[in-house]
Specification:
heterotrimer; A mainly alpha (656); B mainly alpha (178); C mainly alpha (273); A: 656 residues; two-stranded antiparallel sheet; 4 strands; B: mainly alpha; Cytochrome Bc1 Complex, Chain D, domain 2; 7 helices; 44% helix
Chain lengths: 656, 178, 273
């Protein structure tokens, strides 16, 4: 009975609100009309007779009607999209399509790998995790298709002539694309709904086919867009010579590889964001433990993708230079050079967040305290590298500052703005992130092999040598000409990759049969989960930005050098405007992906409650809950055992 | 007071996106407009051609994206200061005019030693200058270290004329046939 | 190494390292590092770093410091507890009130300063000493190849000091009749018209100017002045007149002799490749 007045009040409040709004609107309209221009009253003559003016108007109307009847049909080149214009409309829809597509392509890749690990080790947790990743897929897949259809219709409606041209070149690729799309839908739904219904081998096969088909779709779509950038296989006027040549243009393979890796990194980070979202809403330790672990795996996948990404990017850039020096210079030296400063801020953030997450992750591992002292040197190195990378080549300065510097370049900062410094910084960043990861990996384990000391020393020496090589070449880069300097990036990258490979091999051998302390999943500060979300936002934004770069590089061309853009949107917008569009796109994407997460969470609710009860029965201890029955960390194949787990429970160390 | 998780995440996403947008606004803002068609009357003098050629060189011709004038040191592309003098001696049998025309219409026919090929063909997209525009650019290049000789009437090998450095029209006809 | 102000960098780092051994609270430590890094970035370079870059670097430093504090629960407590105490405990009330007043006052002051600032023209990147034109320049009918040209009277310094001195004296007369209005009594670029000009007149006393240039370069700049500057120097509003319209070649070469004689600089030698 007590609630009734409350409902009444709310109803009255709503009514009052609506009334106020209507009142305000009426008032605004009144004022607006008062301010508007009215013709002087004197002109409003009430002349009823037929004036020459009315006669002329009537004649004009008839002529217009006549013209409308006999109007010839003309092919339109462009149609305008209301308010925002065709370019922004197609930009946002294409970017959203791409973001969902990237996610849909990436998740099956690591879902299948995780499922395979589950089958290999017989550990049910992996299977459950792979299923949870897959749960995110089906809604995302529909959204991808929706945006894809939207993009196609908008292309036809807004850019009919250009779309027609693309049909001219690529018509043979459309049928395979559609067929692959059917196959993708088939495999995806059988993979998802058939979970646990097929024999593991058949199910794994479905998952692999899903990946193969998905990659095929991406490769075909890549052919269209890379053709727009670096056309091939057409005559000077654009007539088709060979569709295969048009497909295998300069940037097709680099984009395929770059996107494949980037998709993995991005998909991992979005999946980790899902885990973080669930972690933060978790009701009990069991859920927290599960989602902490899931977030960790997602982030691990993201970092694995992130580390080789700059190298794939270099390849892509060098192919762009090989296709057209003009385009390469537009990218690095011309209108888009400042975009790379924005990119530096984003990638610097990615590295910072990823490292920070790993350091926070040490909190859940017993015995990680001994590595705490490494954090500040690593942080210092990351900050310095970040600063070098973000130092612009041409500095924004006021008139007085320019006068003080005696020119537009600073005597010291000038050294940091050039390629040598930036290459060195990014290589060191990658190396540092790897060290962070290694420390995290080591924090839960104590090597038992006799040569552990020698091994540690060897690893340290390898890191030192690799860093010295990178820095040495970086400094030498200032003393040689440009052609030699470009060649220097290869030994730098080589040194980093070799060091990572050698150190991993030593580490794997050294930790064989290592004593494993327990990992208390879920015992991590919530801050780490916010970091995962921020990583996902940054990744998404970065994809939007780089998408703009790739597309914007064509300047006033639909197909670079072949089909010219003659629409009102042919100009290249400012970076400020581009970043605004990217931000809006990212926000729409997160709105939609939030919906996907919510749905995925809904479907899991009931079954999860059941699992949870079972888990509580198995592990009565309230603290130090470990979802791993074998007590193993997901990264180690060697398993600890029950005593280790109980030891962890009793000797819980305060993180002070 | 505890803020609901969803709201927290919305705030974080908005804040981070806002920050990146802000970074985007902090860098220099420049719109790149497509090049405009330049109407060149056929009656202009060579001196006026040099002026127009210079503006094309710095603007829609995109020449100054790569080429410098009067810069020394480690260069990635040939410097064009005093090019008129060097152009006359680059290829035997070619006058400065022949050489400059070839450099623009067939850039890869002769690559200056020490540099890599990679210059686009200037009368084809994406640069796509008209023959008249190229004549003015040649006038400008000739003015660097010499006296410009071309007029709007000059016929290059590529526009139905013959090489000045070659006698007879046979080879020119061949070149056109190519 | 003279690009750095060591008298700033060394004390700052010494103080920060000393801080390591004193048991200071995290909050003090945070503030000390932030201020220290600001001092290094802002004043650690001989040529000041532009504000845009200072802001960028300080943003990074802030992010790194925050990351460091937030990685450890103990550190967070050390930072938040004093702040919470400051805001809640009664004995800090006057200080809190002062801070509460100070923040809007500072914002107001900032806005006031922004609104009253004299508008600045947008700055353009420009080359202070553009490359000399490769083609020879023409002055009063004589053609000079700037790559090889040299002061015709420079050799008198060795061969005929008396004649050389006469030339320098002639240069002095020309300088004080024509140049000193802008370039100043002692050639410091601070003549009575200097304040009205942007870019300001060159300071010949500065070892970075005529001491780094060849006499032919000076001759080119004097003869052709602001109007003769090449386009790659960017938008240039130099008020230097083209002196070839007012002075003879001899007079220009003489005034160059005087510039070097008065400042004590030596011209850069002609490089023979």
């Amino acid at each position: 009975m007590k609630r009734k007045p409350g409902v009444l009040l709310i109803g009255l409040g709503v009514l009052a609100f609506v009334a106020t709004m209507i009142g305000a609107f009426r008032l605004a309209v009144t004022f607006d009309q008062r301010l508007a221009f009215h013709p002087p009253i004197s002109e409003r003559g009430e002349a009823e007779e037929w004036t020459p003016r009315q006669e002329a108007l009537e004649q004009q109307r008839q002529e217009e009607e006549e013209a409308a009847r006999t109007k010839p049909y003309e092919e339109e080149e462009y149609r305008a999209f209301p308010k925002v214009g065709s370019r922004v409309a197609i930009w946002v829809v294409a970017q959203l399509h791409l973001l969902f597509a990237a996610f849909v392509l990436a998740v099956p890749m690591f879902a299948v790998v995780i499922e395979w690990i589950g089958i290999r080790t017989g550990d049910k947790r992996y299977d459950a995790l792979a299923y949870e990743f897959t749960k995110l897929l089906s809604v995302s897949f529909s959204l991808t298709a929706t945006f894809g259809a939207g993009l196609t219709f908008m292309l036809i409606a807004l850019y009919p002539k250009f779309t027609n041209y693309l049909m001219h070149v690529f018509s043979p690729t459309f049928l395979p694309y559609v067929l692959l799309f059917f196959a993708e839908a088939g495999f995806l739904y059988t993979y998802y709904y058939g979970w646990g219904k097929f024999s593991p081998k058949v199910h794994l096969f479905l998952g692999i086919m899903l990946n193969v088909v998905g990659t095929g779709i991406m490769v075909i779509a890549n052919a269209w867009l890379t053709f727009m950038m670096t056309p091939n296989g057409v005559s000077e006027s654009g007539a088709l010579i060979s569709t295969w040549d048009a497909v295998s243009n300069y940037t097709w393979m680099p984009i395929n590889i770059h996107r494949l890796i980037a998709n993995v990194a991005y998909g991992g980070s979005v999946a980790a964001a899902y885990a973080a979202y669930q972690f933060l809403q978790a009701k009990n330790d069991a859920e927290r433990a599960h989602y902490d672990w899931m977030g960790y795996i997602g982030n691990f996948v993201a970092i694995c993708g992130l580390l080789p990404l700059p190298f794939a990017g270099y390849w892509l850039a060098s192919e762009i230079y090989a296709f057209s020096q003009t385009m390469g210079l537009t990218m690095m030296g011309g209108a888009f050079s400042w975009l790379f400063i924005i990119q530096a801020v984003l990638i610097g953030n990615l590295f910072l967040f990823a490292n920070w997450y790993l350091w926070l992750g040490m909190g859940r591992i017993q015995g990680a305290e001994r590595f705490r002292a490494f954090i500040w040197p690593l942080l210092t190195i990351i900050t310095i590298c970040f600063a070098i990378w973000a130092t612009p080549r041409s500095i924004i300065a006021t008139t007085e500052e320019v006068q003080a510097m005696g020119g537009s370049s600073h005597p010291v900062l000038g050294y940091l703005g050039v390629m040598s410094a930036k290459n060195t910084a990014v290589n060191i960043l990658i190396l540092t992130t790897y060290v962070s990861f290694l420390l995290y990996r080591r924090s839960g384990k104590i090597p038992t092999v006799k040569w552990a000391k020698t091994g540690n020393l060897a690893q340290a020496i390898i890191f030192a040598l690799s860093a010295a090589t990178v820095i040495g070449y970086g400094i030498a880069g200032y003393r040689v000409d440009a052609a030699t300097r470009i060649g220097f990036s290869r030994p730098q990258v080589g040194a980093v990759l070799l060091a990572m490979l050698l150190v991993t091999v030593i580490d794997v051998l050294m930790l064989r049969g290592a004593k494993t302390t327990d990992t208390r999943w879920g015992k991590i500060r919530p801050l780490s989960q916010y970091l995962l979300i921020m990583l996902a936002v940054t990744f998404t934004w970065l994809m939007g930005l780089m998408g703009y770069l790739r597309s914007g590089l064509r300047l006033h061309w639909h197909v670079f050098g072949v089909v010219r853009d003659t629409s009102p949107d042919a100009f290249t917008p400012t970076l400020g405007f581009a970043t605004q569009v990217v931000s809006v796109t990212v926000l729409i994407f997160f709105g939609l992906i939030g919906f996907v997460f919510w749905l995925a969470g809904l479907s899991g609710k009931e079954s999860h409650a059941g699992e949870e009860a079972a888990a509580h029965a198995a592990h009565p201890s309230p603290v130090g809950f470990d979802p791993s029955p074998a007590g193993a960390t997901p990264m180690s194949s060697a398993g600890g055992s029950a005593p280790a787990a109980s030891a962890a429970t009793s000797s819980r160390i305060e993180t002070s | 007071m505890k803020i609901p998780v969803t709201l927290q995440l919305v705030i974080i996403t908005l804040a981070l996106t806002g920050f990146y947008t802000m970074v985007g606004q902090a860098v220099p803002q420049k719109e790149v407009h497509p090049p405009e068609v330049i109407e060149i009357p056929t009656t202009i003098s060579t001196a006026e051609m040099v002026e127009i050629g210079k503006s094309i060189f710095e603007g829609k011709g995109l020449c100054s994206t790569c080429h410098t004038i009067g810069k020394s040191g480690a260069l990635r592309f040939p410097d064009l200061a005093g090019i008129a003098e060097r152009a006359a001696t680059r290829k035997p049998g070619y006058t400065a005019l022949d050489y400059l025309a070839e450099s623009l219409y067939e850039p890869d026919a002769y690559v200056v030693p020490g540099f890599n090929p990679g210059m686009p063909v200037i009368n084809k997209p994406p640069v796509g200058l008209t023959d008249q525009e190229i004549l003015t650019v040649i006038a400008y290049l000739e003015s660097l270290g010499g006296e410009p000789t071309v007029t709007m009437e000059t016929k290059l090998v590529y526009t139905g004329g013959s090489r000045e450095g070659e006698a007879g029209g046979d080879e020119a006809a061949e070149a056109v046939a190519e | 190494m003279e690009q750095f102000n060591w008298w700033v960098i060394v004390p700052v780092f010494a103080a920060l390292i000393a801080l390591r051994w004193r048991r200071t609270s995290m909050l003090t430590w945070f503030a000390a590092w932030w201020i220290g890094m600001f001092l290094v970035v802002r004043y650690g370079f001989t040529v000041p770093v532009p504000m845009s870059v200072v802001k960028l670097y300080m943003g990074l430093v802030t992010a790194a410091l925050v990351a460091y504090v937030l990685t450890d629960a103990g550190r967070i407590r050390e930072v938040t507890e004093p702040l919470a105490a400051f805001m809640t405990e009664r004995r800090y009330l006057p200080y809190l009130a002062a801070v509460a007043l100070f923040i809007p006052a500072a914002v107001a002051f900032g806005i006031y300063r922004d609104m009253t600032r004299v508008p600045q023209p947008p700055s353009f990147a420009r080359t202070i000493h553009p490359a000399t034109p490769a083609e020879p320049i023409d002055v009063h009918g004589t053609s000079y190849d700037l790559g090889t040209a040299d002061n015709p009277y420079r050799e008198l310094e060795e061969t005929d000091p008396a004649a050389f001195k006469a030339r320098v004296e002639n240069g002095r007369k020309i300088y004080y009749e024509n140049c000193f209005y802008c370039h100043g009594d002692v050639m410091a670029g601070d003549g009575m018209f200097a304040h009205a000009l942007n870019p300001i007149p060159t300071n010949f006393q500065d070892p970075g100017t005529i001491a780094m240039l060849r006499e032919a370069f000076l001759f080119w700049r004097i003869a052709k002045g602001g109007p003769g500057l090449p386009a790659e120097g960017g938008p240039w509003a130099s008020a230097m007149p083209a002196w070839e319209n007012f002075l003879s070649e001899d007079e220009m070469w003489n005034v160059i002799l005087f510039l070097y004689e008065f400042t004590g600089h030596r011209p850069r030698a002609v490089e023979l490749h």
